[in-house]
Amino acid sequence: MSTDTAHSGIVHWRRSLWNGARCEPVVVTLRPDSLHLRDRSLGTVVQVDPRAVTGRLTRLGTLVLTIDGRRYALVGRGASLSPAPSADQQQALNDSGHGAPSPGAAGGAVDQLLNGGAAARMRDWHARLAAAGARLS
């Protein structure tokens, strides 16, 4: 029996508040001792112990994390201008075997209709990070 409690998913990193084309997909993998974000070419954006992460979830569903003094705004889906997840990212998520959504990540009807369930996905990530020791409000 495996004791690996990892979870992976693809979310979007808002590198710019105004430019939707700079909202890039990242593969996020959370393990008890590691939070790992990887870009479209699977390069490491950041890898850190989740207990070193601080942040908050905004009312609009943006998970704003601070890691080593740098701000990462993560959202559940990109803008219409945003690049789609790469084939490498999709394959990495499939290979991880940890990408199944949790039952609590379904979201309400309005979130599903207007936002594709993005806010619910980010609430799920917020809960998972908090459980891993991140200091979130």
Structural summary, described in words:
The chain has an eight-stranded mixed β-sheet with strand order 4-3-2-1-7-6-5-8, sandwiched between helices. Strand 5 and strand 6 (63-67) form a beta hairpin. 23% of the residues lie in helices and 32% in strands. The protein contains three helices and eight strands; from the N terminus they run βββββββαααβ. The protein is of the alpha+beta class and 137 residues long. The mean pLDDT is 85. The N and C termini lie far apart (34 Å).
Short description:
The protein has 137 residues and is an alpha+beta fold. It contains three helices and eight strands; from the N terminus they run βββββββαααβ.
